[in-house]
Amino acid sequence: MKKTLAVAALSTLLLAGCSTQKFNLNPGADLTSDAALTTSQTFFVSGIGQETEVNAAEVCGSADKVAQVLTKQTFINGLLGAVTFGIYTPRTVEVRCVG
Fold first, then answer.
1. Which among 71, 75, 79, 35 has a CA at the least distance from the CA of 51?
2. Nearest-CA neighbor of 40 among 93, 79, 1?
3. For 34, how many CA atoms within 13 A lie in the half-sphere containing its CB?
4. Segment 40-91, tens digit of pLDDT
5. 3-state secondary structure 4-73
Protein backbone atom coordinates (compact mmCIF):
# COMPACT_ATOMS: atom_id res chain seq x y z
CA MET A 1 0.00 0.00 0.00
CA LYS A 2 2.79 2.44 0.91
CA LYS A 3 4.63 1.66 -2.32
CA THR A 4 1.53 2.34 -4.42
CA LEU A 5 0.91 5.60 -2.59
CA ALA A 6 4.53 6.68 -3.07
CA VAL A 7 4.41 5.91 -6.81
CA ALA A 8 1.11 7.80 -7.17
CA ALA A 9 2.48 10.82 -5.29
CA LEU A 10 5.69 10.87 -7.34
CA SER A 11 3.77 10.55 -10.61
CA THR A 12 1.49 13.42 -9.62
CA LEU A 13 4.44 15.65 -8.79
CA LEU A 14 6.21 14.89 -12.05
CA LEU A 15 3.13 15.40 -14.23
CA ALA A 16 1.84 18.50 -12.44
CA GLY A 17 4.73 20.65 -13.63
CA CYS A 18 3.92 20.55 -17.36
CA SER A 19 2.44 23.75 -18.74
CA THR A 20 2.01 25.51 -22.08
CA GLN A 21 1.30 29.12 -22.99
CA LYS A 22 0.28 29.67 -26.61
CA PHE A 23 -0.03 33.07 -28.30
CA ASN A 24 -1.71 32.98 -31.74
CA LEU A 25 -0.82 36.25 -33.44
CA ASN A 26 -2.11 35.29 -36.89
CA PRO A 27 -5.17 33.04 -36.34
CA GLY A 28 -5.66 32.20 -40.04
CA ALA A 29 -2.06 31.08 -40.57
CA ASP A 30 -1.11 27.52 -41.51
CA LEU A 31 0.70 26.06 -38.49
CA THR A 32 1.64 22.73 -40.04
CA SER A 33 5.24 23.79 -40.74
CA ASP A 34 8.08 23.24 -38.31
CA ALA A 35 8.95 25.95 -35.83
CA ALA A 36 11.32 28.62 -37.14
CA LEU A 37 12.96 28.72 -33.71
CA THR A 38 12.97 26.16 -30.92
CA THR A 39 15.20 27.01 -28.00
CA SER A 40 15.56 26.22 -24.33
CA GLN A 41 15.68 29.08 -21.85
CA THR A 42 17.59 28.62 -18.61
CA PHE A 43 16.18 29.74 -15.29
CA PHE A 44 17.44 29.21 -11.76
CA VAL A 45 15.53 28.87 -8.46
CA SER A 46 12.25 28.28 -10.33
CA GLY A 47 12.74 31.45 -12.37
CA ILE A 48 11.80 33.82 -9.56
CA GLY A 49 12.39 37.40 -10.72
CA GLN A 50 14.02 36.35 -13.99
CA GLU A 51 13.13 37.22 -17.58
CA THR A 52 14.36 36.22 -21.00
CA GLU A 53 13.20 37.58 -24.33
CA VAL A 54 12.82 36.18 -27.82
CA ASN A 55 12.34 38.69 -30.63
CA ALA A 56 9.78 36.83 -32.75
CA ALA A 57 9.65 39.62 -35.35
CA GLU A 58 13.39 39.26 -35.89
CA VAL A 59 13.11 35.47 -36.18
CA CYS A 60 10.33 35.68 -38.81
CA GLY A 61 11.60 38.74 -40.67
CA SER A 62 8.81 41.09 -39.58
CA ALA A 63 6.03 41.28 -37.00
CA ASP A 64 3.41 40.56 -39.69
CA LYS A 65 4.96 37.15 -40.37
CA VAL A 66 4.75 35.87 -36.77
CA ALA A 67 2.01 33.23 -36.55
CA GLN A 68 2.47 31.75 -33.07
CA VAL A 69 4.72 31.93 -30.03
CA LEU A 70 4.63 28.94 -27.70
CA THR A 71 6.30 28.58 -24.31
CA LYS A 72 6.15 25.26 -22.56
CA GLN A 73 7.59 23.28 -19.75
CA THR A 74 7.99 19.80 -21.15
CA PHE A 75 8.28 16.58 -19.18
CA ILE A 76 12.08 16.69 -19.55
CA ASN A 77 12.16 20.33 -18.37
CA GLY A 78 10.06 19.37 -15.35
CA LEU A 79 12.20 16.33 -14.66
CA LEU A 80 15.38 18.44 -14.72
CA GLY A 81 13.73 20.89 -12.32
CA ALA A 82 12.67 18.06 -9.99
CA VAL A 83 16.08 16.37 -10.03
CA THR A 84 17.81 19.66 -9.16
CA PHE A 85 15.12 20.56 -6.57
CA GLY A 86 14.17 23.69 -8.56
CA ILE A 87 17.69 25.08 -8.77
CA TYR A 88 17.77 24.62 -12.56
CA THR A 89 14.39 25.08 -14.26
CA PRO A 90 14.51 25.23 -18.07
CA ARG A 91 11.62 26.19 -20.37
CA THR A 92 11.21 25.61 -24.12
CA VAL A 93 10.17 28.39 -26.53
CA GLU A 94 8.93 27.90 -30.10
CA VAL A 95 8.26 30.59 -32.71
CA ARG A 96 6.24 29.73 -35.83
CA CYS A 97 6.15 32.01 -38.86
CA VAL A 98 3.64 32.49 -41.68
CA GLY A 99 4.63 30.74 -44.91
1. 71
2. 93
3. 3
4. 888 888 788 888 889 999 999 998 889 999 999 888 888 888 899 889 989 9
5. HHHHHHHHHHHHHCCEEEEEECCCCCCCCCCCCEEEEECCEHHHCCCCCCCCHHHHHCCHHHEEEEEEEE
The domain spans of the chain are 2-97
For residue 83, the surrounding DSSP H or E stretch is: helix 75-83
Conformation bin of residue 80: beta by default, left when phi > 0, alpha when psi is -120 to 50: alpha
> How many angstroms separate the CA atoms of 62 and 3, rounded?
54
Q: pTM of the entire structure?
A: 0.73
pLDDT 10s digits, 27-38: 887 776 778 888
